[in-house]
């Protein structure tokens, strides 16, 4: 059960990355949901990780952490 939740959250994080590349209205309900679900975790990571050449590496770090968590469960 927990592994399934980790997998679903991983997909939401990936959706967050894709949405950031597209010009989708931030007021769209799906975009608001994705933002609300990922921002509480990604924002602290962004404060710690530097941007490298303008790239936000926080989703990649979060996805790696989620993979480790999935293997431990």
Q: Biggest sheet, open or closed, and with what strands and sense?
A: none
Poorly predicted residue ranges: none
Helical fraction equals over 70%
Number of domains: 1
Head-to-tail CA distance between termini: 9 Å
Q: Output the number of helix runs.
A: 3
Strand content: under 5%
Helix-and-strand structural type: mainly alpha
- Gyration radius over CA: 13 Å
Would you count the extended β strands for me? 0
How do the helices and strands follow one another from N- to C-terminus? HHH
Query: Mean of the pLDDT scores?
Result: 93
Question: What best-fitting shape do the alpha-carbon axes yield?
Answer: globular
What does this structure look like?
This protein has 73 residues and is mostly helical. The chain is 75% helix and 0% strand. α1 (2-21) packs across α2. The mean pLDDT is 93.
What labels would you give this structure?
73 residues; mainly alpha; 3 helices; 75% helix
